[in-house]
């Protein structure tokens, strides 16, 4: 959906409570100031929103950290996941190295081959002699089709020479085609082993992820409870971007906040009392259902509703303000136990330092829906 | 009043963009919502990480804009 100028003015009228014409005037004033600043090569900054500036003759906008965080609210707290053992990319990188090595070997083999060929020509018994050498020579071409072709061409040349003198040429050709199979197996072994090791590591990694996913460890000790399901959930979140798009349909609840206090809600409230009982926000005490806007620190996330309730009770007894938030992830309902009600993400982040381990290091901030 | 207006303006843009709406501001350009998918990142030392997905706001300047 596109918000055009008229709709934007409507929304601004709603938000500010000003008259339509006033809003129109203010908006064009703002636009003019941005344009003017741009023309003079200056930057124009809107606090907690972003900066406009000219770059290469085009107006550019750099969002402020705060705006970026707000927009990225859905994925707040998600950190890069280390892919241990899943060395897909490095393998891709290693292969060129190996092939370089192979080329070197190939060159050696080539010179060797040439020697062998010469020896062959000199020696009177071509039947028995070339077999072992040929085996070694063929290893590399077996892996490198291009080399193989070249090798064959070369052999043809040799053979052509040999035809003049001796008869073993067809035999040799056969040997050349027969040997590679055995030789290849031997030579590829170290690389093969590496590959198998990588595949096994990958399988173990995926297996354990799946096990987390199934919630197999949920019955384990208390401290472990939130981490597995949370990790699984994170990875699910990673896997499925569609779901996120679905969830945005839930987001618009923000809109239903009372219009009067809204313009103030962002900046001033935060400045006055970060994270404390201003306007019903806070880390401790009872959950304030009248505050339907804000953020919570999610410390548990699990599929078992009873377990979630038990965890919530436990936290409540410790004096925290708790709430359970249901979220549907790929058709599975997760019960997220959150603590606190915070007006802004910053407040929530500040509060994280006040909560005990293991929650301090294992949580994420989420908008209360 | 002007400052309040700017605050309201940034909030409206933020909320609409979060709702994946494109906000056109005549004379400047438009703000859009953009989702960046997760991706694998590889460091030079071979370390591989999966970067999380990200939602971002992008700004598209108006075509006739410029000096």
Automatic annotation (TrEMBL), chain A:
Composition-biased stretches (Acidic residues): 116-130, 145-164
Pfam families cross-referenced by the UniProt entry: Bac_DNA_binding, SPOR
Membrane-spanning parts: 194-212
Domain SPOR, chain residue ranges per copy: 289-368
GO cellular component: cytosol
Biased composition (Polar residues): 225-239
GO biological process: chromosome condensation
Compositional bias of kind Basic and acidic residues: 240-249
Keyword tags: DNA condensation, DNA-binding, Membrane, Transmembrane, Transmembrane helix
Keyword Cytoplasm: no
GO molecular-function term, one example from the UniProt record: structural constituent of chromatin
Residue ranges that the Swiss-Prot or TrEMBL entry lists as coiled coil: none
Annotated region described as Disordered, given as residue ranges: 114-185, 225-286
Keyword Zinc assigned: no
Family affiliation: Belongs to the bacterial histone-like protein family.
Protein name: SPOR domain-containing protein
Automatic annotation (TrEMBL), chain B:
Record key words, sorted: DNA-binding
GO MF annotation terms: DNA binding; structural constituent of chromatin
Matches recorded under Gene3D superfamilies: IHF-like DNA-binding proteins
Entry's family note: Belongs to the bacterial histone-like protein family.
Protein name: HU family DNA-binding protein
């Amino acid at each position: 959906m596109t918000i055009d100028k008229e709709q934007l003015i409507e929304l601004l009228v709603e938000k500010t409570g000003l008259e339509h014409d006033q809003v129109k005037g203010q908006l064009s004033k703002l636009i003019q100031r941005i344009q003017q600043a741009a023309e003079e090569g200056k930057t124009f900054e809107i606090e907690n929103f972003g900066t406009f500036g000219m770059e290469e003759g085009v107006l550019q906008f750099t969002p402020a950290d705060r705006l970026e965080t707000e927009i990225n609210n859905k994925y707040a707290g998600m950190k890069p996941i280390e892919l241990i053992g899943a060395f897909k990319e490095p393998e891709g990188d290693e292969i060129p190295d190996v092939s370089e090595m192979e080329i070197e070997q190939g060159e050696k083999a080539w010179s060797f081959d040439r020697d062998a060929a010469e020896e062959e020509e000199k020696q009177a018994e071509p039947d028995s002699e070339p077999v072992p050498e040929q085996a070694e020579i063929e290893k590399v071409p077996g892996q490198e089709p291009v080399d193989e072709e070249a090798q064959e061409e070369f052999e043809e040349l040799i053979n052509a020479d040999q035809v003049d003198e001796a008869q073993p040429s067809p035999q040799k050709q056969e040997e050349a085609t027969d040997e590679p199979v055995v030789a290849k197996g031997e030579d590829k072994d170290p690389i093969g082993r590496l590959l198998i090791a990588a595949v096994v590591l990958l399988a173990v990694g995926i297996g354990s992820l799946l096990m987390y996913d199934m919630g197999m460890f949920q019955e384990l000790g208390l401290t472990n409870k939130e981490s597995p399901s949370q990790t699984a959930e994170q990875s699910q979140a990673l896997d499925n971007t569609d779901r996120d798009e679905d969830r945005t349909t839930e987001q618009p609840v923000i809109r239903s906040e009372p219009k009067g206090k809204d313009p103030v809600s962002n900046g001033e409230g935060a400045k006055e009392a970060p994270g404390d009982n201003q306007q019903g926000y806070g880390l401790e005490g009872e959950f304030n259902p009248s505050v339907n806007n804000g953020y919570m620190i999610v410390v548990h996330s699990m599929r078992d509703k009873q377990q979630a309730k038990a965890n919530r009770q436990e936290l409540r007894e410790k004096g925290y303000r708790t709430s359970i938030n249901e979220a549907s992830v790929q058709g599975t309902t997760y019960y997220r136990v959150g603590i606190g009600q915070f007006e802004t993400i910053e407040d929530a982040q500040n509060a994280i330092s006040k909560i005990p381990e293991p929650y301090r290091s294992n949580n994420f901030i989420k908008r209360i829906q | 009043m002007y400052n309040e207006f700017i605050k309201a303006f940034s909030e409206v843009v933020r909320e609409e963009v979060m709702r994946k709406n494109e906000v056109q501001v005549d004379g400047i350009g438009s703000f859009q919502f953009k989702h960046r998918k997760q991706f694998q990142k590889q460091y030079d030392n071979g370390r591989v990480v999966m970067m999380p997905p990200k939602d971002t706001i992008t700004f598209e300047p108006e075509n006739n804009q410029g000096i």
